[in-house]
Predict the 3D structure of the following.
Amino acid sequence: MGKKQKDARGQIILECTEHKESGMPGTSRYISTKNRKNTPDRLEVKKYNPILRKMTIHREIK
């Protein structure tokens, strides 16, 4: 039996950046995974916001 390797792929939460500024209730969040070893900085992805009904930038939150 060898040592168990630590998994570099972790689960992250993406939250809409425009939704907070709009003043509308609720939030738009997506759950995804990323390789923390290859991309240590925060991820930004264009995703659909169903409340605002348009594509917006979703940023990784802690």
